[in-house]
Amino acid sequence: xxxxxxxxxxxxxxxxxxxxxxxxxxxxxxxxxxxxxxxxxxxxxxxxxxxxxxxxxxxxxxxxxxxxxxxxxxxxxxxxxxxxxxxxxxxxxxxxxxxxxxxxxxxxxxxxxxxxxxxxxxxxxxxxxxxxxxxxxxxxxxxxxx
Length: 146
Fold this sequence. Notes:
Layout (H helix, E strand, L loop, with lengths): L2 H10 L28 H11 L5 H20 L4 E3 L3 E8 L2 E4 L6 E4 L2 E8 L1 H8 L17
Antiparallel strand pairs: 1-2, 2-5, 3-4
């Protein structure tokens, strides 16, 4: 994929709203559209197409598909993916375990597996927590109203 197109996609990810989840007590204040509560692949393509009107939707869709395919291939070959400021993706290994069926109590042999792990970068953590600097401490809002 063209390096410039990758930079366009990654650069355009700034300010994208996050989906509201159970562990997030409030909706982010800055969203692209107040009626949207989540981000899907098609919404991402729409946003990128609007931000880069010189590119056709098919080109943006192809770039997003290509990026996802390359990231998937990297994880399948046990490579770590790091996007500075955003975060890193890696695989975590879970060894085989013996479990129990909660209904019958019968023992089950659960095979070894890998799970995808995402670790957010400092810049993403700072933006999500709206904390100036990247020291990891959540500070109260000191803005005066009046």
